[in-house]
Amino acid sequence: MPKIMNAAVVRCGIGKSHMTAFQKVPEHFSLAAICDIDPLRTQATADELRVPKVYTSLDDLCADPAIDVIDLATPPHLHLAQIQQVLAAGKHVICEKPLVASLKDVDALVEVERASGRRILPVFQYRYGHGLQKLKFLHDRGLAGKHYTTNIETSWRRRDDYYAVAWRGKWKTELGGCCLTHAIHAHDILTYICGPVKRLFARCTTRVNPVEVEDCAAITFELHDGSLAGSTVTLGCADEVSRHRFVFENFTAESNTRPYDSPGDPWKFAADTPALQQEIDATLLEFKPDLEHYAGQFVRFHRALSDGTELPTTLEDAYHSLEMITAIYHSSETDQPIDLPLPKNHPNYSGWTPARYRR
Ligand SMILES: NC(=O)c1ccc[n+]([C@@H]2O[C@H](COP(=O)([O-])OP(=O)(O)OC[C@H]3O[C@@H](n4cnc5c(N)ncnc54)[C@H](O)[C@@H]3O)[C@@H](O)[C@H]2O)c1
After folding, report:
1. Which of 11, 93, 121, 313 gets mutated to test ligand 1 (max ligand atoms within 8 A of its CB)?
2. What is each CA distance from 346 to 107, 323, 338, 339, in whole angstroms?
3. Best of 16, 126, 165, 184 to mutate for ligand 1, by most ligand atoms within 8 A of CB?
4. How many CB atoms lie within 10 A of CB 297?
5. Stated pTM of the model
6. Within a 10 A sphere around the Cβ of 207, how many other Cβ atoms?
7. What does each C-alpha distance from 155 to 178, 242, 257 come to in angstroms?
8. Which of the four pLDDT bands, split at 50, 70 and 90, describes residue 300?
9. Which of 12, 68, 79, 328 has its CA 20 to 30 A from that of 340?
10. Phi, psi for 296 (deg, rounded to 5)
11. How sure is the predictor about 9, in pLDDT bands with cuts at 50, 70 and 90?
């Protein structure tokens, strides 16, 4: 029986979903503590979720010898220093997206993680929806054939109330807009299934909200497998939708359109011929659903730590995700297509913030 790990979650925004996810898998994790700088909010959350320990400082939480893993659901600009602090305290770290502020920071974390003997889990919880996992299952079995195109839509709604939180909407603290904060999962899903991007062209603009960062974008991707993809992103959509439509030689895979659960069931798998449809339907009968969302990612993390196997998501995944972001912002700023992988001497290796917002 693997050890039940004592987990602590920092911050009570989206962090609350992390807390309930840990509580869904009590055979793997015990939610032992939560931490937020606001004592009233933290205590209210602890009372509601019956969490035994409350901290108002990360220093104090890190000093608690009972905690095995600290989950950072904190604003993006704080991630790097907090990850380093948690590792230095001898604990594993789970961290929300975007992991850090540059490719250079990810490379630095590779060394810090290795030296610490502890692990970093970058959050990509959208990967674990059952519909998307079914596509992964079919794709890994070689049933997809040649990949032709993918359509990606992230049409969400964010207005004044969302941007009333001080760190949002600013390059210095949010580190980016809808491409970084909202469509990061949608683009990760593209490469999770189809592999790395070879070249992209992006246009980013701010049309919906009075903020520094972009809230609308359109991106075209050419992948290493030769396929093409198009993504539109907006935060001005009254009727929110998330959508993926993958067109392969043998079938088309279409997600549901629930904005925050499009990787979940149901997905439509429409085959090119009746014989292929039979094969796909028969193969899907063998699909064994595992846990979804945050709980799904946390359980896979626990299994990997227990078995000494590859983590469900790694610093390499975070690097590729942030490399796409770096290329998207550079393309939009320079009005040029960008080839990937980016060289380590790329001008934006140390940060993707457009030049006019750097201070
Ligand atoms: N993986 C995902 O799907 C996902 C979703 C949302 C956010 N995130 C990431 O999680 C991190 C944290 O984002 P967040 O949106 O939870 O931010 P946050 O921690 O600032 O929480 C935002 C919400 O919690 C309230 N809040 C938080 N701390 C508070 C405090 N100390 N006092 C009073 N109110 C407080 C705010 O008013 C707001 O409603 C960011 O890196 C973000 O990008 C990831």
Report:
1. 11
2. 14, 11, 11, 11
3. 165
4. 25
5. 0.96
6. 10
7. 10, 6, 10
8. very high
9. 79
10. -65, -40
11. very high
Closest ligand 1 atom number to CA of residue 36: 31
What's the gap in Å between 224 CA and the centre of ligand 1?
A: 35
Residue 304: count of CB within 10 angstroms of its CB: 17
Residue nearest to atom 40 of ligand 1 (CA): 75
CB-based pocket (< 6 A), ligand 1: 11-15, 36-38, 41, 73-76, 96-97, 123, 125, 165, 181
| CA of 109 relative to ligand 1 center, distance in Å | 23
pLDDT of residue 1: 55
What value does the mean pLDDT take over residues 349-355? 96
135-159 pLDDT, tens digit each: 999 999 999 999 999 999 999 999 9
Query: Across the beta sheet with 251-254, what order do the strands follow?
Result: 268-271, 251-254, 236-248, 147-157, 228-234, 216-223, 197-205, 338-339
Residue 329 clears pLDDT 80, i.e. is over it: yes
CA 73 – ligand 1 centroid, Å: 7
The residue contributing the CA closest to ligand 1 atom 26 is 13
How far is Cα 150 from Cα 220, in angstroms, rounded to an integer? 10
Is the bond into 98 cis (omega within 30 degrees of 0)? yes
Burial class (CB in 10 A: 0-12, 13-18, 19+), 226: exposed
- Give how far Cα 40 sits from Cα of 13, 26, 54, 317, Å: 14, 26, 10, 36
Q: Is the pLDDT of residue 358 over 90?
A: no
DSSP state letter for 334: H
Judge if the upstream peptide bond of residue 26 is cis by omega within 30 degrees of 0. no
Length of the chain, in residues: 359
- For position 88, what pLDDT does the model report? 98
